[in-house]
């Protein structure tokens, strides 16, 4: 195997063993508990972004329609 691939596999293995040791850490548990709330906020922000983009698209279409009519 390539030396860089071996180094990457060793780093991944050490990261996995480190995360297994941190399973009882209250800080890690608190961050994990927040993931559901974060997902809700991310979904809501995406919905707002789509709504705003649709609003700007609608305004642009109205401007085109009024410029052709007038």
UniProtKB/TrEMBL annotation:
Keyword Secreted: no
Record protein name field: Bacteriophage coat protein B
The keyword Lyase belongs to this UniProt entry's keyword annotation: no
Keywords: Membrane, Signal, Transmembrane, Transmembrane helix
Transmembrane residue ranges: 38-59
Superkingdom of the organism of origin: Bacteria
Signal peptide: 1-22
InterPro entries: G8P, Phage_M13_G8P_capsid_dom_sf
